[in-house]
Design brief:
CATH topology: Transcription Regulator spoIIAA
Pfam family, one: STAS_2
Number of strands: 6
Order of helices and strands: EEHEHEHEE
Strand order of the largest sheet: 5-4-3-2-1-6
Radius of gyration: 14 Å
InterPro entries: Anti-sigma_ant, MlaB-like_STAS, STAS_dom, STAS_dom_sf
Distance between the termini: 14 Å
Structural class: alpha/beta
Organism: Streptomyces xanthochromogenes
Helix content: 25-40%
Protein name: Anti-sigma factor antagonist
Family: Belongs to the anti-sigma-factor antagonist family.
CATH class: Alpha Beta
């Protein structure tokens, strides 16, 4: 991996009134610092429902946990509903260790929503 490549990225799409944020790679302090402002802007602009997909997250530390907690805070402030799509066993284990697995609504797959109003997905480093 070159210095210009980041070990994380996100992709978003909007389906109906739900914004889906797919997080990819290593969620650490650098990811929190780099992705945080983008995620918060997305949540501020979103309708009330936010789904964060953790299936492609390969690493999660305190910075990644802080990112998830900040997303939860922003969504709650807007009166919205946040759901996390369960990540790998390693990511799920970390959330259990820090006793946050019960603090989020965790689902196993994308919720079924109407296909109308779909925006094109885009990738953000």
């Amino acid at each position: 991996m070159s210095a210009d490549e980041l070990a994380f990225w996100l992709r978003t799409r909007t389906v109906g009134t739900t914004i889906i944020i797919e997080l990819h790679g290593e969620l650490d302090m650098l990811a929190h610092r780099e992705l945080g402002p983008r995620v918060h802007a997305l949540v501020r602009a979103a309708a009330t429902d936010v789904v964060v997909d953790l299936r492609a997250v390969t690493f999660l530390d305190a910075g990644g946990i802080r990112l998830l907690l900040a997303i939860r805070e922003h969504v709650a402030y807007r009166g919205g509903v946040l759901r996390l799509i369960r990540g790998t066993p390693r990511v799920s284990h970390i959330l259990r260790i820090v006793r946050l697995d019960g603090s989020f609504t965790i689902i196993d797959a994308l919720p079924r929503v109407p296909a109308e109003g779909v925006e094109q997905p885009h990738r953000t480093p």
